[in-house]
Amino acid sequence: MADDVGTGDVPGYWEDTSVVSMPNLEAVIQEGTTFTDAHSTPLCAASRYVFLSGNYQYRGELLGGSWTMNYQHGNQFRKGQQSLAQIFRDNGWHTSIFGKWHVGGLIPTVDDEELRTTDVEMLERMLSHPYHNWDRPVGQGPEDIGFEESYITSGGIQAPPYAFLRNNVFSEDVLSKIKFWMEGSYPAPFGTSMIEKQGDGVNDWDSTAYNMILVNETEAFIKNHLQTRPEDPFLTYVALGGVHTPHSPPDKYMNESPIAGEHANGHLDVLLEMDYVVGSLIQILKDNDVDKDTIIIFTSDNGGLTKRVFNKGNKHYSSGPLRGFKSSVYEGGHRIPLTIRWDNGNIPKGETRSNLVGLNDFYKTLCDLVGIDVPFGQAMDSISFADYLKDASATTGLRQEIGTWSKVLRKESIRVNNMKLIQSWQDGSLELYDLEKDISESNNLISTANQTDVDSLFNRLKAISPCYDHPKKKFRVKFSSGQIFKKGCGW
User: Cβ of 198: how many Cβ atoms within 10 Å?
Assistant: First the structure.
């Protein structure tokens, strides 16, 4: 799973929107099936819960996702919810995760003191604060939702603590070399490391090495798996740091190919590195003779980054012709790249699929592909597309609608087939687009639309909304003034 990679960042979607050559990803596309209408949530923490739970984001603890370790609710999973990793583990699979976690967790405290603060200093001083007891593991971490092996950072490369946990634990080595990092750039062994938000980390933190570390961890896991559990299948979730900011590409990749400075900016250089990572991961599978039996998935956690900030003056546009970018309920915010390859699994090579699918659909789809029964009450918003993946004519029962919510409910949307209705929580205004005719969402049809059709869409939006799941709960709504208020569900 890439981070902040839009459909315009990669091959296979739009013409002339990316200036970065990606031969490894192009090979995956040629060997697999690509989905042109796949969707996440607009932001990463929520999407990771959606992917792992098979639920819409609001069925978790927080509407906008659990972004960091905390003292209150722990991870994003509610009591009784079983992750995709847990279901696979319970069916004999060897499960692992490497990279960006972003699903929350409980900070262990001295004497189990129940802290109720979100004090910024306590979060910035995650590793060194005297109230925290790192002789104990993180609560509700990867192991607690089904990952038998893990090597993760709580928030990727973007936020403290800048240190890896292995199997829910900060090692003695990590705790022996704690440093408080200020925002800025720092020389590091593999390039110029960057800190975007100040906070604790290890004194040898190097953001440029992040993705290469994940490659090495994945290789070690697969080799160990084949030695110790060769008869069992494995599930590995590799959550890259790129291309989220800070954009700190390594000077060279592991094969000595130059990365930093090859393009106009760090964003594009990190996209180049991402392609090398894709190639490395597939080569690991080939070297261990498991590539043809492995389901290989490439996707992203949300839409791409805005051209206005990162790619001014060049022809690269992360969203292609789509309106919006990461955090937006417009298509550019949540339409994501998705390619699936399985050489021995009857997945066609070089084909595309145009039906609507969501990250939440992976839960039931993967279970169907490998013959695992989904327990009753799990993956409530997941619809399997396993048959459609193998046969483009197998369209019965596919997803026909999907909802999208911004982090603080500034806007929400419902997509039913090609029609998309957007509601603003700031003023109650509505927008209506026909995506079949207007993929760029440039022509708002609300003033001329049939009111019965609008009411039908609006009623579906209400039916699948967070308020449907939490009838008495209030949610934060950010207004154009910048103020945030709590609103109820009586809209």
Answer: 15
